[in-house]
């Protein structure tokens, strides 16, 4: 059934307004509605703010030959942004592109071209080589796959790079090479000892000849190893290489060419009907095609087989075998966390002997404290955490203004403003005037926990030394007011 296109395109604020205007322009060319009725139909089909804006125009003005232009001009005033804003959005949309793990390579290339074409409308273009590298860089490929794509790219152009990615990865959704890398256990066979017994992890033993089924070849699992064809063999087959179309003629038959992981051409000569059977007890495989449940089952077996090894040791073992699956470290941590035996025999984490230093350079962290010598008499002690250089003043009041003046006079005027002030939670330090001074000099303020003098142990230890000196001086008649 052919549509008469009487219903105008629906406007959605989540989509670009310019796209909707383009759809309306196309609809006006194919609709059977009279020209005077088109603006009325579009206005009635709008929702939300767009409908309220359209209804500000009288029905008489909409029911004219130029009613559509009047309606679009009204909507443009509300929804059409400036060209520079639209250009920046198109650029940001293109610059943020990246291939998701669930997206096939073909769909990713289509999305890439659509975003770039939208950006080109605003006269923003990239050199062909840069565009090719941008396509490759945002395809989320592993290093080996990226090198394979560069090898297959015959020219440094966007078209050549696009063709290479399509040929190699096709409709694959997983980031990486076409082939699934498998980690398999090796097996050794000998004619002299056909009845060799293998010790299994559960304590049982199994004779080698009983595991070998009749009619099977123990070397079948090595069938994927590539073999080189000699020049004599190629001549005998009448080989004609067609690199433009990625195919070869051998024995007067056209055969498609494939690519190895290193970028060389290869021909698949395996028997299509050959089936190699393997089961979990013979081969241990961890691949990106497995579900999380299957990966957990295999990794749990590895964890028990290696005597409840730690997650770090198992991860090193897996990485050394060439497996780069991103889920394995997370699953291993979960297995160790949920393993009762590992938790029972795990060692307690060592407690740190000392804390980390608060400063690594001069005037980075300055500690400040008030210490009472006698009733109504205190001294303000200031010390640099890195150099241990200290300064002090006798004070007879805890007013914040007095503390601010003494700190500026004794420290900032001599050494400059420090990066950080470290004090306790006393009211003489934790107040608006201290914070105002810190903001003016661009100083960060940090405080210790309440009733925990050990949090500022460096200053407290020097307080004791300074207090002993002052008390000795006063015992010989020295007046504190003269200090």
TrEMBL record:
InterPro entries in UniProt: Integrase_cat-core, Retrovirus_Pol_polyprotein, RNaseH-like_sf, RNaseH_sf
Integrase catalytic domain ranges (all copies): 348-483
Coiled coil: none
GO biological process, one term: DNA integration
Domain of life, source organism: Eukaryota
GO terms, molecular function: nucleic acid binding
Gene3D superfamilies registered for this protein in UniProt: Ribonuclease H-like superfamily/Ribonuclease H
Protein's name in the database: Integrase catalytic domain-containing protein
Originating organism: Knipowitschia caucasica (Caucasian dwarf goby)
